[in-house]
Amino acid sequence: MQEQRAALSSLNFVWIGPPNFKQGGHDVVGVESIARHQPKNPMVFWCQEAYVNEYRIYFKEKGIQIEVKSIDAYLNEAVQEELTSNRLISANSNLNQPKRKSLQAETKEHPPSLDDAVQVSSIYRTLLSEQRNQIVDRVCFKDLFFLFLLSREGGYVLDTNIQAMKDQLPIFSEYDYYHFPVLAGQHVEVWMQYCPLRDRERVQKSLKYYLDQYASEFRPLFFNLSKDYSPKHHALIGEIAIAAVCLKNQDNYIGPDPIRSVNVWKCSDLEGADVRMDELNLFKEYYNSHKENREADYHTAQFHCFMGQPDRLLFDLDHGISPNYKGNSKDKDKTLLHIAMGHVNFNQGDKDYLTRIPDKLNAISVMPA
Question: N or C terminus: which one in the chain shows less Cβ crowding within 10 Å?
C-alpha cells in the first residue's frame, strides 16, 4: 500500500571520493539521467566536504536543480546532537525510564541510539584516511551511510548510476514500508533503498546490525591488511551490507521467498551490465569498480562498445574518456576507437557524435543503430 503525503521524499544520491565527471561520469550519470525528466521529488547529492563546491558548480553549469550537501558536515552535526543528548540524559540520570525517553526525544530528533553518529563518524575517518581510501573502502562507507541517512531522514537513497529507462518517466512512490531491490526473486541488493520518514524503526535495526557486524567481523581485518586487500575483505563488504538490509532473515522479514514480500522491488536478472526496476522505470548499471582485481577487466566505456550502446559511449566521451584510451584488459593493445569501430553501429543522423572522436571514425560504414 502506498501512503498519501504532502511532502515528497528526497532522492539522495551518494558519492564517496573525488569527482569523476571528467573521467567517465560515474558520479553524475544517474543524476543527469533522472534530472532530464524534471522529477517533482527534491534531489540531493551527498559528497565529501572537499568536493562540495566543485559539484555545485558542475550541476549549476548543467542546469540541474539539486542540492549538494557535505557528508562531513552532516556527520559532525549528528555527533554534536548525540553529545548534547548524552550530557543532558546523564545529568538527569535519576529520571525514570519514560521521562528519560521523553528527554531523549526532545534533545535528539533523529537516531534511536545514543552513539550511532559517533560510530559512523569514526568508521568514516578510518575508511577514508590517507592510509586507506581505496574504492573498496568508499563503497563500504557508502553502504553504511545509506542506512545512517535513512535512519535519520527517510526517503530514497540511490547509487549514482541508477538511471531512468529510455523514454520512460521515472516513478518514485511513497510506500508504507522499507524497500530494497531483489534480483530475479532471490538476490538481495543494497544499491537503492527507501524508508518512510514516519516509520524508521526497521532501517534503524538494520543500521544497528551493520554496526555490530562491522565491529565483530570487519574491524579485525583492518589490523591485518597487506598492501593488497584480501578476497575476504572484498567479500565481507557485500555480505555485511546485505545481511543488514535483510536483518539476516530475522523475524522472517523477507521469508524464504523474498519476491512475496511487500518490502522489496522485484528486479530483473542481470542483462548485460543492467538490472531493470520496471516498477519505477529505472535501471542499475553495474560497474563493479570495487571488485577485486577490477583494474584487469574491461573499462565501462569498452563494455559500452561491446554491447553496441552508442548513447552510453557518447556519455563516456562527453565526460572525459579519450577515444585513445587503452585499458588493462586482454584487449589492452586496442584503443577505445578501435573497439568502437568493430562493435558499434552509429546512427547516421548523429553528426555531433562523429565530431567528437578522431577523423578515422569517419571511415566507419555508418548504419542505423
Answer: N
- The SS3 of residue 106 is helix
pTM: 0.84
Distance of CA 36 to the CA centre of its chain: 19
Mean pLDDT for the stretch of residues 200-216: 90
Inter-residue contact 33 to 66 (CB < 8 Å): no
**Does residue 227 surpass a pLDDT of 80?**
no
Closest CA to 11 of 135, 178, 174: 174
Same domain, 278 and 304: no
C-alpha cell at 308: 553496441
Q: Which three cell numbers stand for residue 116?
A: 550511532
C-alpha cell read off for 26? 560515474
Query: Within this chain, do residues 178 and 276 fall inside the same structural domain, yes or no?
Result: yes
Reported confidence tier of residue 70, pLDDT bands at 50, 70, 90: very high
Contacts of 362 (CB under 8 A, 6+ apart): 354
The range of the structural domain enclosing residue 320 comes to 298-363
